[in-house]
Give the backbone structure.
Amino acid sequence: MATKIAGETYLGDALHLPLSQDGQVSAYVWPMRVLKTGCGGPTIGVEVGNEEVLRWDCHDQPGHWHRGGYDKLGARGSHVEFPEGVHEAGKQVTWALGQITKSSGELLTEAGFGQAATLLDPALVKAAITKIKRHIRNQGDLKSVAIEKKLLKV
């Protein structure tokens, strides 16, 4: 799973799921990741082996995502803003999961992981999306917990 960054806080249980039969392509979710800057929300990613390729930081207004190879290009080199109108964490999660469902093969190929893109199993992708949605919902209101612990700036 993606490397946790020193100084950040992670609330809730991480979930890691295969997107390919061999498990080399996988998705993960951290239900609440609070950055050093005091913003936070769910972080969802797609990995190939031990390399993080795609990441969606669903952190409300400062939320953004990473394409082209997160580990390869770094956070700044892969940074992309969410589309217009996708400013709330819940909408960002929905949009991110839609990208995994509809565009993960294209995004993996763009990042130089064309072989991994061919390994994506549509049934596993669909199952992973369902499990990620349920997992985030079942983790409860972690934003309120983070605010109560004075981790999030509001």
Notes: The chain has a mean pLDDT of 95. The chain has five helices and seven strands. Residues 9-147 form one domain. Residues 1 and 135 are 17 Å apart (CA to CA).
